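ugh ok so i messed up the first submission bc i forgot one of the chains. this is the corrected input, ALL of the components this time, i swear. 785 residues overall. if the numbers dont match what u have on ur side tell me asap before i send this to the collaborators (the ones from the other lab, u know who)
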Amino acid sequence: MASTSGRQLKAMLRKDIVMELRTKEMIMSMGLYSLLTMVVYFVALSQAGSTFDPRDIAAGLLWLAFIFTSMLGLNRSLVHEKDQGCLEALLLSPVDRPVIFFAKAGGNLIFLLAVEALTLPVFGFLFLQGTQLDWSSIALLPLILIAGSTGMAGVGTLLATMSVNTSGKDFVLAMLFIPLMYPLLLGAVTATGGAIVGGVQGVEVFWTGMAWVLGYDVIMLLASYGLYEFIVGA
Amino acid sequence: MNEGQTQPLALEIRDLTRAFGVRKALDGIDIELPKGAFLSIFGPNGAGKTTLVKVLTTLLNPTSGSAHVLGRDVVVDAVELRTHIGLISHSPLLYPDLTAEENLLFFADMYGVEKPHVRVSELLEAVELDHRKLDLTRNFSRGMLQRLSIARALLHRPEVLFLDEPYSGLDPHAMDILDGLIAQIRGDHTFVMISHDLDKGLELCSHALILARGRVVLYEPREAIDDAAFRQTYRSTVGMGVS
Amino acid sequence: MRSLTTRASVALVLGGILTLGAFLGAFFWAGVPDFGFVRTAEQADSVRYTGPFEQPIDEARYLANYAGYTIEIEAGGETVRGELVSADKDAVELTTDTGSVTIDAADFEAARVFGSEYGRPDWGQKIFYFHVPVAEISFIVFAFAAFYAVRFLMTRDRENDTKARVSMEVTLVFVVLTMLTGILWTKAAWGVWWDWEPRLTTYFILTLLVVAYFVLRNSVEDEERRAVYAAVFSILAFIDVPISFFITRLIPSNHPVIESGGLEGPMLVSFILGQVGMIALGYAIYQLRMGEVQLYDRIEQAKALLER
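and heres the new structure output, hopefully the right one now
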């Protein structure tokens, strides 16, 4: 049975990636959305003058962009399935429901990370010019990006599977997603802030935040994994 | 134990109920269908036809009662059962941004079909879509989608085929192909079809079922049915739409 | 059904009397000259606040509220104790035994506030007798909702879903009450209506989660699917809330921490009256609402039967 699950998981992941590479729909829309957010940031901060240290707020701005971009991606990825009734076709096949969860969440995670990997240097280029960066602690950033995005993708996939069947769609997803993401965001922003500010203290703060994010991931992903089959069976 | 091969019944449904609170989508359904039969299900909107098929295809769980398809319980043996059943719906259940071939290969992987490429080619030829296999299904006509959908449903050689209004929206050519395919595999397969087309349904079936408000109004083998009386009964249920 | 209404009415009356008693006790019996729970003469209420990088952050507005209290300030490595005269973001002024002392905000590190020795009725603090019970009940009922959600997923019994929903409705009532009393208390204690302070923020998140529950319910048409989705979400929310509370330990807080207990006499009695009264009120609201919902369901059932 394990070999079948593996084959199914690979098939589902491959399908999502092939479809995405072919249309580039999700990456494009998520990437552009991220860029647009940067523009809005510029406008929003334009009155703040040049006395503030952008390193202080960089973490918050980054994760703000990631969270809203991820919601966009989650919605689209599930709408694909629902459109032609494909989710039903998946449910008809002899696949364990949790495997569907991992495949969908995994796909979403990959796309999210891709967008984040693009956004990060762009953000740095636009807003962190001329600030002093501690490159050894910056190198820690990918860790928190992965940890935070895993939580977002996992819980988000569960919620998006629900919200795509409602009459509110994006709004319902936002309403459910953002409050549940609060602890994850808090930990991620703390850690990211620590990494960007750098120094011994920054690194210490980084690992504290990281620990919390990992804790959140473990608990919430376990819960999402357990609850997923109730949702798709409804 | 209870292996599918020794079971003479394709469907064994006992007092099947699907209810939530007061509303009953299915209310005490009792049906037995032998293997190799063709069951046509008729009934007004909201009668529970789709719900019944969903329960039989393990997409929904019953609230009480039991249903066995090919000797397997739809709840307990769901995963194993799915390898023996197929569904053709009025939605194509195909991914628009994959080619015809990719779609079939994907589902072949999901069903654990052996030698997937061989099987996929075989089916593409059978539904006369071999020449379009490298085209995205996004560009297919409705008829072509339905033909591909049939191919998808047959990939894993299911013993029981469920059809949910398969003829709706088809052009005559596609209808012919569907007819032809059904005729071809008629012998070794059991069919369960929901249809709003009384004539077509009666023409193909060996057993007929009329559902209304989740209950069995009439269930007879084809020979026992008098056409005129049947139509009368059917018409009388049309007024019993969704409550 | 008759017994349900009777139980509910009894609970309502009892709860009302007890809560009223708590109020009267709090305002007229307990309180003067003591502050009650949080700040008695022996206890200290720490108002130290440091940011994530150990930089002192302006808390003058918090201190300003404690003018007239005995206060201990740590600044520049030294500790000064005296009566607080004024505080703003530039300097803090104290009257000590040796005269007036002004401390620069730049040197400021931490402060501790002690109960006043000449006694001052602290009206803002009275809200406490109401706020704590409501907050506690909101969590308890929220837990019940999650419990019924789990039961529902296991049994798929519509009754469990109804119980879960009604529990969430009661939770909503108490959450709103907690937020309102909390806001009043924030104003009374710290001089501002709102602060993005960790515990307040986390409770606000809880409010959002409860509202989200109803948004979700309202946006799903199919009854059974609605029940399943709502149950799943309330379970997720229930797991999420404790995580949120613990994660805010990342950021030290200004929320009054009860460092050492010590309610005595009339204050204790009022407080307990308030607690029990609130529990009774919560129970009453739940039962009354359940009765209403069950009546509605019965009518629906009768309608459906008539149509068959």
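quick check: The two ends of chain B are 43 Å apart (CA to CA). that seems consistent at least. The CA atoms of residues 42 and 224 of chain B lie 17 Å apart.
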